[in-house]
Each structure stands twice: as structure tokens, then as C-alpha cells.
From TrEMBL, chain A:
Residue ranges of the region described as Disordered: 429-449
Entry GO MF terms: oxidoreductase activity, acting on the aldehyde or oxo group of donors
Protein name: 2-oxoglutarate ferredoxin oxidoreductase subunit alpha
Ranges for domain Pyruvate flavodoxin/ferredoxin oxidoreductase pyrimidine binding: 215-449
Taxonomy, superkingdom: Bacteria
From TrEMBL, chain B:
InterPro entries: 2-oxoacid:Fd_oxidoreductase (IPR051457), OFOB (IPR011896), THDP-binding (IPR029061), TPP_enzyme_TPP-bd (IPR011766)
Protein name: 2-oxoglutarate ferredoxin oxidoreductase subunit beta
Domain Thiamine pyrophosphate enzyme TPP-binding: 52-201
GO biological process, one term: small molecule metabolic process
SUPFAM superfamilies xrefs: Thiamin diphosphate-binding fold (THDP-binding)
GO molecular function: oxidoreductase activity, acting on the aldehyde or oxo group of donors, iron-sulfur protein as acceptor; thiamine pyrophosphate binding
NCBIfam families: PorB_KorB
Lineage: Bacteria, Pseudomonadati, Pseudomonadota, Alphaproteobacteria, Rhodospirillales
Keyword Calcium assigned: no
Species of origin: Magnetospirillum fulvum
Keyword Zinc set for record: no
């Protein structure tokens, strides 16, 4: 069974105040209680509050790391401005459109999909319940139609509302039950959720931004300075609350220039440090990242990518910061670039980033994106990982010895003292320097220090986590970041159709690992590159950095429309002919 | 107070400065080292952070934990360091271009944030390292520069002390690099004073602003004692000719600091996400 036939995707639409986000959150919580996995993202405009909005859900008995090709249910309390994001609501003839008749005609852009349109008078139904609201009717209808059933919703309401808001609980309960009863009477055939599988251990519900924050803390981050920016802000809100609880420090800086430099100062002082931002902030941070490279000060930058360039589309996802993350620093400035591949992986990858940055005394950029950062998933709890900040520190030199901060060691890593250590005083510098740290413009010092700073990255053993490599076959799908889930699902579907393909998704984007990639590509004759950028940045990177056995086919598109498994699947079938 | 363990010399490195002979910054370097020694600090518990420019070269000339960072960003690096390591003495140093032009925003926010550190600006009203362009504190009519039009830029100079006061700096003083002991005493008081302390040091650039050689004959000790009243400090600045040395203002704001204590375990953080 592939995941798509065992999942149900639901879009809930309504203007601000209609409560579709509340209903969607409750549906996710109820499904999680019942043992299902879930993925919940939201599409909204630039309004601070209100405006058009859609809650986009996928429920399944199996873990979910991708959106599906279409929605089985589109439920609309109203149609306000839905046209603005109708392209994000793919439907087909098997889909259901449940619409309140008082909201007017179903927009043609949606009805032309051939979806079955079913009138659902949510506002009227809600009026028959004292305190009842249309969104709770909707919640009951969807629970009934998908086979989730009303009981998990009732149980969830009891936990979340009963104690604090007894009136709201009674009203919501009645509305949900009324909705569920109505749902069962509708002539609205819908794909059903399979029974939930037995659960081993608990589950988590977490967003990518929160997962990255927790991963940072697990890795040993104890300092964060940052400037608010969409869509990274939730990670900062999380860290601002969590860091003080574990003895860490959070500071809101005046801008991203200050953010990165405060982090560099704190890291110089001995604290593993992180900042989080999006493309415009990363652009400002590039001068600071160069300083971190030159002064060999570890720091992690979480970049939650959004549509660019410039202000672009702040609330929508895109994978277009790859170039600036890898190539955006002036001078020859080798550093680390990682990318998480799912919401849950935001935790592991950020934790690993802390470890790598600290081990190599180098900046590490983590390329998350809006679709990971601001979506919430029900996942298996993140397992413990062995990657912690473990900086090689310097001790007071013996009598007669002189400490050299930038000593030319074999590994390229030279011990970094914690200020306060007697006898290890040095000046960290963005100027090129001799081994002692003293500024130097000599050719020999420049080439030796450049070699040292590259050597430490190249010689590090990154282990098997450098990439996700799954499946086998002469066709390889090479992708990265948030596209990995869709590519995985496509590979599974293609296999069911008799087309063998393998998935290669580097988690470590920089430095490149030519030998490991050559092994991953062994036997590959055709390549499909999948990415969410207009210029095909990842394809250019792959062709520039790696020896590929074939010129790749490319499936590359800018945001905000996600790349869906079916598109990749279709390309794989064509390549497999 | 115990006898000092370290002398001013212990705070100096053996790196030879890039400064021109006669540069005012030599005096400031001597004053900083003297202030550290007078305060009975230890070199390894002291940090000097800077940006870019002639005066920003200063960390390498000290025997402290130095950080010669990037143009304009010294205060951010210093704030991060002090917040992470409140046990260290953090002194940020630089010039007028570094602090008031490219770093102007950080200067304002450092004043208002009030982290307990000392900011020493060696103001010579010119960009020396790039060979003599007008800076934010350059007189509007100064035109002895290849980059300034005849008659000068016509742009009103930045008033660092007034801006520091308006932005909330907790300690504001003016010093002259030629008065090594006086400058050392002001820096020492600034370090001792809680919160963000700003010491504007008139430090002549005799290469590009030769007329600044005359500063030594026009500077004077301020006739007023320091005030704790920002309104009075502001009035004094309105009538100030720029040559009054000493402490202008001592504020009463608490330092911005982040207490560091562990209240929960990481497992507790994990549990927030459990279904």
C-alpha cells in the first residue's frame, strides 16, 4: 500500500473569524489521539489577522512527510478571496466540495475540477445549537465522512475545553455531534481512513520551527540573538521561552546584523549560539558569517526559506536560498550548509548542525523552509541523537610555551580557549592572520589559513547522515530539503508500477562529498532532479559540484505551489519507459 | 584593595601598532591598559572588542581576549559576549566612522539596551584607514579630502553625546587622548559604572586632520560636576563647544542582564510536544 491510498486530505476554507484553523487544530489533535499521523499546513494571505485562510490537512495511519496530489474534501464555510489561493487546492472528480449554500456559488476555478458538490448549511445547522458555531459543525461532518468518527473528537474536546470553558465545551460538543449526524446522512462518498495501526509509544505534535528550536537546545545551544521575521518567528518564540528555562540566553536584537554578531560574540565567550531568520535576514548576515569563517567562531543560522527575492512572498515556501547559503559569502569562505527533510528532521538536522559547527569551529546554515517551519505534524517522538556541542577548548599552556589560536594542525581544527583561561589570550580576527592570530597580509599565512579552514571541513567524518539514500534502480531522484517527502512517495508509487528508482537527498549540502555521492550514484543511468526554485539552483549546484553519470531531467518550479508526489511519479514513469 | 597583580604593561601585547607616529590612539591604548591595571583586573578576564578602522586595530595591541570584528558591528559582538559571560569585563573600542556611521544603529540600541559594558570611541572626525574622507563627526565645511566637495559636505555633524543621552546610555563622558591619566581615570570609572558607559575620546589624526594638533591647547576640564538629571545634561550639551572634558552624565538605570539558572531538563521540554 502506498501512503496516498491510505490517507485523506482535507482543506477547510473560511475567512478570518470563521474558525477553520481552530477546527483544523482540533481535527489534528483528535486524529492524533486516535492513533493517526497528520500533516497540517495553512495557507493565508499577508493579513496580520483575518483575511482569507485555508487549513490544509492530511491524515494517515502511516507517517506523513509530503502533501498529497489532491484533496479528498474541500469544505468551505465561505468563499471570501478563495480565488487567491485556489491553485493551492487541487481537486479532481473524486473530490468532495462541501459548501455552505449561503456563501454563494462554488467558484468556477474549483468546480471545474469535476468534484462532487454537496450543499452543507453549516450556518443554519449551527443556529439550531445554543452557542453552536459553523466550524464545529464542519468538524463533526469531516470526522464522520472520513471514518475518523466523532468519538476521538469528543474525547479531544473533553481534554482541551471541558475544564477551562465549560459553556464552550457543551456548545462545541453538541455542534460536533450534530455535524457528525448530518455528515452520515449526506450523499457524499469519501475515501475512508484505514484503521489506525497499533501505537508503540507516544506521539508528538510539533511544527518544523519548534522542532528546530528543540533540536538546537538538544545539541547544546545556550544563546540566541535574533530579529523577528516571517516565517522563522515561531522558532524564535520557542527559543525565547525555552532557553531561559535551561540556563540559556535569548536576546531580541535590533536587526539581523546585530543578531549574527551577538551570536558570534557569545560563541567567542563559550556558548553554542544560534540565530534564525529568512532570506532577507540571511542576506544581511552574510558579512557576519564571513567573520565567523575567518575568526573560526562556531555559529548556527536557521534560515526558514520563503519566496524571494527581496521581500518576495513572506508567507509561502520556496527553496531559493540555496545559492546564497552556499555561495553567498565574499572571499573563499568554506562553511557548512545542511537541510532538514521533514518536520521531524528539523530537530535532528538542527541538532547535528550545532554539533558540526562546534566540532569544526565554523558557521553552519540550516536551510529549512516555510512548508516545514510553519506546518504542524503528528510524528513519532524524535529519538535521542549522539550529536552535541563538543568544542575543542584550549588549556593554559605550559611554562615557556606560547598559545597559538590558529595553529596549523593536521585536522585543521585548533583548540579554541574559553575567555577566562589564563595564558590563552588572543585576538579573534576577520583580518587574515598568522597562527598566533596576529594580523598578516603575507601570502604564506593567507594560503595556510585558507587551507586550514577548508581542511577541517573536508577531513571531517560526516557518517551516514550526510544523505538519505533509499531504494535502487538505474533511475535516481536527487532532491533536497522539503521536497524529499514528495520524492520518497513518488519513488514508492513508481516501484508499485514496476519502475525502480532510488532516492538521493543530501542533508549535507556543503561541503560536498564526492566519494559518497559517487557511491550513491553507482549504477545510475538517468537522473531526475526535483526542487522548488525558478532558476533550478539545486540542479546547477549538482552539475557544478558533482560528477553526474547523466545530464539530469529537472522538475523545478518556484513556490508557492508545492511539488506534489504525483508530478514526480509521472516523470519517473516516463523515464522508466 | 589588594595590591594589583598586573601592571598596565601586562595588558599590552608585543604587536607593533599600524598607527602613524603621533596618532592620538597610542595614548588611548596606554590609558585603557592603565585603567584595567588600576581596576585590578586580570588580562584573561578582560576582553577588548572592536570593529574596523585605525582605532579598531586596538585589540591585537592588548593582551586580553580580543575580538577585531567587522566594520560597525563591534557593539553587537560585545553585547553578545557580555550577555553570555557576565563575569568578563568587556570594553568595546573603535572610531567615529565605525561607531556612528556604519554602526550608528547599533550605537543607539546599545545605549538603550544598557548592557554592562564600556564603549570607548576614538573620535578624530575623519576616516583615516581609507586615507581621509569625511566621517559623521566631520565639520560640515571641512573639504581637505578627495571625497569632499569644495566647501565641505555641508552635512551637520553627528553629536555622539547628545545621541547617547537621548538613547539612554547610563554613563557619558568626554576625554582627550593626550591626557593619559585623565582618560584612564574616566575609562576606569566607566568600567565600574553599571550599564552601558560611553567614553568619547578626542583622539587627533595628525595625518589627515593636522589642525587637530591644536586640540591640546583648547580642551579644558568641564566646570560642571556630572549630573544625574538627563534634562540638565541635555542643556549642557546644547551650550557645549565640544572641548569640555569629564563625566557629563551618570544615569540610574539597571543593567540589562539575563540571569542564567536551570529550571527544567531537556526531557521536560520534550514533554511539551507529547500528544
Amino acid at each position: 500500500m502506498t501512503i496516498s491510498s491510505g490517507s485523506v486530505s482535507i482543506a477547510l476554507c473560511g475567512s478570518g473569524g470563521a474558525g477553520v484553523m481552530t477546527a483544523a487544530n482540533m481535527l489534528v489533535d483528535a486524529a492524533a489521539q486516535a492513533g493517526y499521523y497528520a500533516l497540517f499546513s495553512r495557507s493565508s494571505g499577508p493579513q496580520i489577522r483575518g483575511g482569507e485562510a485555508a487549513a490544509l490537512l492530511r491524515l494517515s495511519a502511516e507517517p506523513i512527510t509530503s502533501v498529497d496530489d489532491t484533496f479528498q474534501i474541500l469544505l468551505a464555510i465561505d468563499w471570501l478571496n478563495v480565488v487567491r489561493f485556489a491553485a493551492e487546492l487541487p481537486l479532481n472528480a473524486d473530490s468532495l466540495i462541501l459548501a455552505d449554500p449561503t456563501a454563494g456559488e462554488v467558484p468556477e476555478i474549483l468546480s471545474r475540477s469535476g468534484a462532487r458538490i454537496v450543499e452543507l448549511p453549516m450556518k443554519d445547522l449551527a443556529q439550531s445549537i445554543p452557542g453552536g458555531r459553523p466550524n464545529m459543525i464542519a468538524l463533526g461532518v469531516v470526522a464522520a465522512l472520513t471514518g475518523l468518527g466523532v468519538e476521538p473528537v469528543v474525547e479531544m474536546l473533553g481534554k482541551s475545553l471541558k475544564k477551562k470553558h465549560a459553556d464552550a465545551f457543551e456548545a462545541s460538543l453538541a455542534a460536533v455531534r450534530h455535524g457528525a449526524e448530518t455528515g452520515l446522512t449526506l450523499d457524499a462518498p469519501c475515501r475512508q481512513l484505514p484503521p489506525a495501526l497499533p501505537r508503540h509509544g507516544g506521539r508528538w505534535t510539533i511544527s518544523g520551527n519548534h522542532a528546530a528550536g528543540l533540536g538546537a537546545i538538544r545539541g547544546g545551544i545556550r544563546f540566541c540573538a535574533a530579529y523577528p521575521i516571517t516565517p522563522a518567528t515561531e522558532s524564535l518564540e520557542y527559543l525565547s521561552a525555552a532557553l531561559p528555562k535551561i540556563g540559556g540566553v535569548f536576546v531580541q536584537a535590533e536587526d539581523e546584523l546585530a543578531s549574527i554578531n551577538m551570536c558570534i560574540g557569545a560563541s567567542f565567550g563559550g556558548d553554542a549560539s544560534i540565530t534564525a531568520t529568512a532570506g532577507p535576514g540571511l542576506a544581511l548576515m552574510t558579512e557576519g558569517l564571513g567573520l565567523a569563517v575567518s575568526s573560526e567562531t562556531p555559529v548556527v543560522v536557521l534560515d526558514v526559506q520563503r519566496g524571494g527575492p527581496s521581500t518576495g512572498i513572506p508567507t509561502k515556501s520556496e527553496q531559493s536560498d540555496l545559492n546564497i547559503a552556499i555561495y553567498g559569502l565574499h572571499g573563499d569562505a568554506p562553511h557548512l550548509v545542511l537541510a532538514p527533510q521533514s518536520i521531524g528532521d528539523c530537530l535532528f538536522t538542527t541538532q547535528w548542525a550545532v554539533h558540526l559547527a562546534e566540532a569544526m569551529q565554523a558557521p553552519c546554515i540550516v536551510l529549512s523552509d516555510q512548508s516545514l517551519g510553519q506546518s504542524r505534524a503528528v510524528i513519532d517522538p524524535a529519538p535521542a541523537s549522539p550529536f552535541f556541542a563538543n568544542r575543542e577548548t584550549a588549556r593554559t599552556p605550559a611554562e615557556g610555551e606560547t598559545f597559538k589560536r590558529y595553529a596549523l594542525t593536521n585536522t585543521g581544527v585548533s583548540p579554541m580557549p574559553v575567555p577566562g583561561t589564563p595564558g590563552c589570550q588572543y585576538t579573534a580576527d576577520g583580518l587574515e592572520h598568522a597562527e598566533s592570530g596576529t594580523p598578516s597580509s603575507q601570502a604564506s599565512d593567507h594560503s595556510r589559513q585558507l587551507d586550514k579552514r577548508l581542511r577541517k571541513l573536508v577531513l571531517h567524518d560526516y557518517g551516514p547522515d550526510w544523505a538519505t539514500i533509499e531504494g535502487e534502480g538505474e533511475i535516481a531522484v536527487i532532491t533536497w530539503g522539503s521536497c524529499t517527502g514528495a520524492a520518497r512517495e513518488a519513488v514508492i508509487r513508481a516501484r508499485a508500477d514496476g519502475v525502480k528508482a532510488r532516492l538521493i537527498a543530501p542533508r549535507l549540502l556543503y561541503p560536498t562529498l564526492p566519494e559518497q555521492m559517487a557511491r550513491a550514484l553507482d549504477g545510475v543511468r538517468k537522473i531526475l532532479v526535483v526542487e522548488q526554485s525558478h532558476l533550478g539552483q539545486f540542479n546547477r549546484y549538482l552539475r557544478g559540484e558533482y560528477d553526474l553519470p547523466a545530464r539530469p531531467d529537472v522538475l523545478s518550479r518556484p513556490g508557492p505551489l508545492p511539488i506534489r508526489p504525483g508530478e514526480i511519479h509521472a516523470r519517473l514513469l516516463a523515464m522508466g519507459k | 584593595m589588594n595590591a594589583p597583580t598586573y601592571s598596565a604593561k601586562d595588558f599590552r601585547s608585543d604587536v607593533k601598532p599600524v598607527w602613524c607616529p603621533g596618532c592620538g590612539d597610542y595614548g588611548v591604548l596606554t590609558s585603557i591598559a592603565k585603567a584595567f591595571a588600576d581596576l585590578n583586573l586580570a588580562p584573561h578576564q578582560t576582553s577588548v572588542v572592536s570593529g574596523i578602522g585605525c582605532s579598531s586595530r586596538i585589540p591585537a595591541y592588548t593582551n586580553t581576549y580580543g575580538f577585531h570584528s567587522i566594520h560597525g558591528r563591534a557593539l553587537a559582538v560585545g553585547a553578545g559576549l557580555k550577555l553570555a559571560r557576565p563575569d568578563l569585563t568587556v570594553l568595546v573600542a573603535g572610531g567615529d566612522g565605525d561607531g556612528f556611521s556604519i554602526g550608528g544603529n547599533h550605537f543607539i540600541h546599545a545605549c538603550r539596551r544598557n548592557v554592562d559594558m564600556t564603549y570607548v570611541v576614538m573620535d578624530n572626525r575623519v576616516y583615516g584607514m581609507t586615507k581621509g574622507q569625511p566621517s559623521p563627526t566631520t565639520e560640515a565645511d571641512w573639504d581637505a579630502s578627495a571625497m569632499a566637495p569644495p566647501g565641505g559636505t555641508g552635512v551637520t555633524p553627528f553629536h555622539p553625546l547628545a545621541i547617547a543621552l537621548a538613547a539612554g546610555a547610563n554613563f557619558i563622558a568626554r576625554a582627550f587622548s593626550g591626557d593619559i591619566n585623565g582618560t584612564a581615570a574616566l575609562i576606569a570609572e566607566a568600567i565600574r559604572y553599571p550599564g552601558f558607559s560611553f567614553v568619547a575620546v578626542m583622539s587627533p589624526c595628525i595625518t589627515f586632520r593636522e589642525e587637530q594638533r591644536d586640540w591640546k591647547s583648547v580642551i579644558r576640564q568641564s566646570g560642571f560636576p556630572a549630573t544625574t538629571d538627563p534634562a540638565q545634561a541635555a542643556r549642557r550639551l546644547m551650550t557645549d563647544d565640544g572641548f569640555n572634558m569629564g563625566v557629563l552624565y551618570r544615569g540610574g538605570r539597571d543593567s540589562f542582564a539575563k540571569p542564567r539558572s536551570t529550571q527544567c531538563s531537556i526531557a521536560d521540554l520534550d514533554s511539551e510536544f507529547a500528544v
